Amino acid sequence: MPSLQKIDCSRFDELYPLLELFDSPLSKDLWKTLFDYQWARSEDYCGYGLFDDGVPVGYLGMLFSQRTIEQQTHHFCNLTSWIVRPDYRSHSLSMMMPIMRLKNHTVTDLSASETVIKLSERLGFKYLDKTVQVLLPLPLGLGQSKAQTLRFYQDDEISDLSLTDSEQRIFEDHRRYSDCHQLVIQVTPNEYCHVLYTVHPDSKLSYCHIQSISNIEVFERYQADIRKCIGRAAGISLIVVDSRFVASLKLPLSVEIPVGSPRIYRSNTLQAAQVDNLYSEYILLGLRSLGIREVLLDTFPAIRQLKHLRPQKSPEPMLKSG
Fold first, then answer.
1. What is the pTM of this model?
2. How confident is the model at residue 316 (pLDDT cuts 50, 70, 90)?
3. What is d(CA 318, CA 307) in angstroms, rounded to the nearest whole number?
């Protein structure tokens, strides 16, 4: 009879053959980041393995983190890389039982398959988002701020700023990941917005994906400046942001589209708009949100012909620390 075991980072090599069944282009070193990620954990394990006579036949990864939201400490668990050998699929549900016992955690699943979503809904999971807002390139001069005090800081430049303890921790925890970039737009020393986004270059359609926004009021006021700054830095002017972050905002030249795979979560303490995509597989693996690229190409058949939506040969440098 198969049994469940907690998995810590020392057992990566034992579980790696299962991860290879995903038929993914991810390297072994990148997969390993799911086991030995470098931010502070609220738990000392990184998932559960399903074993039959000592042989791993299933794995469900769990990325733990601790966040300060509205001056309260919240525990998070991002589910990732759920895989079970076909001949053991009847035991899949048992792997969710430890998740259901995480009473004091907000649990997210950002890349669930349709089958997993249906199962998770029966276990009390709700939708984080079914759509994203696509921020199209802005014409020159549109909405550009004339504020004299406005300042922009990108990636390593942010280390010189005085952020809140919570945002300083977010900056340090995410700066090491190569596909992840950060921007602070500062109005005054005490009024600023910290935006974290990932970059997804592609031969057919490239885009940036905003994963968190710290100050939605500042973001709305200066959204044109932020969009243009990200576009110049990444060499990619198409930007995607999860609809729950910007549901109340008026964003010129934007359109809402469905995502291929809705994101889901389970929480007794937080609403969907309070849950971002940080400390997740999106960051560790540089993952695209499932289906966005395909929906974009279907929605805008001519979009791939637009030169300014493809990565430029020489984008502005984006420094990363090791």
1. 0.89
2. very low
3. 21
